[in-house]
Amino acid sequence: MRTAYYLIHSMGRGGPGDFADADRTAAANFADAAADAGVERIIYLGGLGEGASPHLRSRHETAELLSSTGVGLTYFRAAVVLGGGSESFQTIYHLVRRLPVMVTPRWTTTRTQPIAIDDVVGYLASAADLGPEADRVIEIGGPDLTTYGGMMDEMARAMGRRRPVRIRVPFLTPRLSSLWIGLVTPVDTGVARPLVEGLSTETVVADPSGMELFAIEPIGMRDAMTRAVGELEAG
After folding, report:
1. Dihedral of the alpha carbons of 228, 94, 140, 22, in degrees to the nearest 10
2. What is the DSSP code (8-state) at residue 132?
3. How far apart are CA 70 and CA 126, in angstroms?
4. Rounded alpha-carbon distances, angstroms, from residue 56 to 123, 132, 159, 194, 197
5. Residue 213 sits in which domain range?
6. For the domain that residue 93 is a member of, what is the CATH number?
7. Nearest partner of 118 among 78, 173, 164, 64, judged by Cα
8. What is the pLDDT of residues 117-156, one digit of tens each?
9. Lowest-pLDDT choice from 7-16, 48-57, 100-109, 124-133
10. How far is CA 228 from CA 36, 83, 118, 191, in A?
11. What values do phi and psi take at 133, rounded to 5?
12. Domain total of the chain
């Protein structure tokens, strides 16, 4: 089977214009090119969650455009990916590293189901060997349900630090949160804001049937976090 992978999401890092427009253009162009080249399946990694944030909407719209020319689509949907190169992971890492006490907005209580980068790569690679049963939405997540605050606590453990003291306040808007993240972490504000806007939406696997197509047993959050911290600090 002729397979193409689509792992692009612009997120607006340092660039002009609307990242969602850039995503639409890129996905439509890729879908047309794939159809012209005789590709039979596109494998795409998007995000879990049904929220109204531009970030999540763009992920879903990208999937729709990739399948618009009749090419089969395997649409993986994941929550936070625990790996040294993940922007959301790096955001949490730098917050914990720099702030022993932090003022936190409501999104720190939002539930999520993080997954290790090695497991994500395993799903993506294995999908190319499946038949038409893989032309569907496949929700993937690790075995542990937690919150973003819980991830901060687990991050601190992996770093050998005390858990940060979190003082929750209700008035931190996504814009203020992204500016705060931009101030205390090296994460680009243009990336932080769309990420933060999606953090109020639960990212939990609702339909695990897609994962049953694979002989993969995702590792737990503790091991995944330890590996990801080691990867980030080694790089």
Report:
1. -120
2. G
3. 22
4. 21, 26, 30, 9, 9
5. 3-234
6. 3.40.50.720
7. 78
8. 999 999 999 999 999 999 999 999 999 999 989 999 999 9
9. 7-16
10. 39, 5, 10, 20
11. -65, -15
12. 1
